[in-house]
C-alpha cells in the first residue's frame, strides 16, 4: 500500500494542513519567528539524558 500524500492527509486531518505564513509572531514578539531547528539548538540540554557528573 502506498503512503498517503500530504494533500490527502491534510484532507483527512485539516488541523495538520499547512497554514499561510503571517507576520503575527513579529507583531506580537517584536522579532521574527525562529525555526524549530534554531530553538532545538538553543535548548539541546533539555533533551540530554542524565549526566554522569550530577
TrEMBL record:
This is Uncharacterized protein. It comes from Nonomuraea marmarensis. The lineage of its organism: Bacteria, Bacillati, Actinomycetota, Actinomycetes, Streptosporangiales.
